[in-house]
Structure formats: C-alpha cells, structure tokens
Amino acid sequence: MNRAKESTTMNIELIEDNPYLLLTPGPLSTSKRVKAAMLKDWCTWDDDYNRIVQDIRARLVQLATKETSLYSSVLMQGSGSFCVEAVVGSVIPQNGKILVMANGAYGQRMAHMAKMLNIPLVLLDNGEVAPPDLNQLEIILQEDANITHVAVVHCETTTGMLNPIEAVGRIAKKYKKTYIVDAMSSFGGIPMDMAELQIDYLISSANKCIQGVPGFGFVIAKIDELTKCAGWARSHSLDLFDQWDKMEHYNGKWRFTSPTHVVRAFYEALKELADEGGVIARYNRYKTSQRALVKGMKMLGFETLLPEQLQSPIITSFLYPESEAFQFQTLYEKLKRRGFVIYPGKITNANTFRIGNIGEVQVDDMIRLVDAIQQEKFWT
Ligand SMILES: *Cc1c(COP(=O)(O)O)cnc(C)c1O
Hints:
By secondary structure, this protein is an alpha/beta fold. The protein has two domains: 3-30 and 278-375, Aspartate Aminotransferase, domain 1; 32-274, 3-Layer(aba) Sandwich (Aspartate Aminotransferase, domain 2). The protein has 14 helices and 14 strands. It has a seven-stranded mixed beta sheet with strand order 2-10-9-8-5-3-4, sandwiched between helices. Strand 13 (343-344) and strand 14 form a beta hairpin. The termini are far apart. Pyridoxal-5'-phosphate binds at residues 25-26, 79-81, 84, 106, 153, 157, 182, 184-185, 205.
C-alpha cells in the first residue's frame, strides 16, 4: 500500500468531530478527508509540491470552461478579498476606468478598493435588495467611453442574491469592455462557463464552494487579457501578472511563501468535488438543501428577504419574526448548543439573519436544523 495513502486513512479516524456545523458562507464545514490532507509538511521548492500546484491550476481552468486553452489560473495568498484587490489593482491600465455594479457589501468592497487605488470609478449601486439595473448599465456605457472595465459580483453573499452575470457580460462585451466577475461564493457550486459568459477575470477562493480551508484565493483569467497587464500593478505583493508569470513559467512556483497545508487541503477538496460528481452534483445538493431549509423555515413562520427568483442556492437571508421577544443572539446561542452555527445579517435596511448551506452539509442537516429551531422557538 502506498505510504501516503495509508497515513491519510489513519489520520481521518483520529480527527474528532466538530462540536458544531458551520452554516456560514466560508470558512465552512469541511470534510475529514480535507482536514486530514493538512497533516503533512511540504517544501515549496520541491517538485512534489509544485506538481500539486500545477494540477490545481489545471483543474481550476477545467472547472471554469470548456475552452481550456484560452484561460489560465493564478493562485494568490490571503483571503478572497486579496484576490479581488489583486485583480482591481493589476488589470486596469493607468488611463483605465472601472464601472462596478453593486448591490451589497462585496460590490461596495470592490468599489472601495478602486477608490483607494486611485482608479477612476463609476459606481452603479442598486441598493441591497434589487437586481443590477441593466438599462442603466447600458446607458452609462453609451455615455462614458472612458470606462474600460465592468465588474460585478455573482452571488452577492450579503443577501444571497444571484446576479445576472450572463446579461451583464453581454452588455459589457457589446461595448468592448473587459469583464470581471467576483464569483467567490458561487464558483464550484453553480455551473458556469467563462467563455460562454464572456468573463475575462473570474475570482474565487479556497474556502467557499470548492470546500477547502481558508488561506488563499484564485483568479481564472483569459490569457490574452492577462498577458497585457505586465507592469500595470499598483502593488508588488498583489501583482496578479507577476504572480501568474512566475507560476506559469517556473512550474507552479509562488513568488512568496505559500500556504502549503491549505494548498494541499484544497487539492483534496478538488478531488472530493470530482468524486461527488462535479459541479452539477454539488449544485443539486446545494439546491436541495436550500429548498428544504426555506420550506422548513416558512413552516415555522419565517419569511425570506428575497423572492425565490433572485435567491441563490448558497445562502439565504431570513427576516426577523415580528415578535418583540425575538433576539438573534439568543437564537444563535441556543442553536450553537445544539450543534449549528448560523450567521448574522449584513444589510442596512432590514433585520435579517443568514443561513448558509455550502460546505460538508447535507439536506438532512437542514431538516435537523429546522427541527432544532422549532424546539427553541422562544419568541412565540
Ligand atoms: C467571501 C466573499 C469575498 C471574500 O471575502 P474574504 O473575507 O476576503 O474571504 C468576496 N466576495 C464575495 C461575494 C464573498 O462571498
């Protein structure tokens, strides 16, 4: 028996169960298999490690599109936001201008990054509960020829809204703009093809739908676009082109220390995703869980913030019940004691809390959760 395999099997048995399930949008509950993959040290200069990095990079491109020869991937240290900032700061030339469509905290964060980097910005903010205004987008692009890039968030994790990235891409490309999508909380959990969606830069991270542990993010880029960006970056450590150039031409080497254990765990998570049946199987699991959650919560009297047609299968915002006796913190503590960690709301105009269903979470967990909430229904 292969020695590495043997030790992994042993280690899985030694890992204790988590005291609670994370029903959060990342970091999320990971499998024992993914956690066990971290129990080994790696040399960043060694082929064994660099081969893993290269395999990860290839697998990411394969997950992102059928047109694999036109795209390449680059991994970047830090949380997902570091990758968003690497893209915003590296792919817009000195005379460029970005239009950010925002309907939540993550769209706003992208705009904030552009401002801090002194990149000319048009912010199209539709509020937190409305989908992006496509007519407005087209009008702005007709009127402002200086705009070079259009950016949007796919699943706006603030509310759980799924934004229409295909329609935004069609308009962006009609006006020949470079198209950036923050698919942080959807990539790997919702089927998509970058080539069909006309996305030039797609951003995600290790600890969302691929179900790895936190520590790095990644960008999948159209090669023709990325290779234009040499020397454009406004930051050295977040220079996307430089990071890609090194990885691409030095067999998977990172420029600076990489999160080796996290990378190895991510590799395991990618294999686990394939074993589950790929993105479509995972999407179906998420959808089934999310529907069971909403159905159960509605039976308990809760309402969702968003109508069903805007809702993603990733995370759901629920409105606080009318009762004065309801307190999120109390519900949170009670559920935590029963083995579930839920998530506070993040929007400004309504009292909400959120329940995520990505990660090593099954439909049965959602049914158990609803049951636990029913038993703790202290506000009625
Ligand atoms: C998680 C997430 C990010 C990145 O957040 P980090 O805390 O930096 O990992 C960015 N955009 C969206 C839509 C997200 O869900």
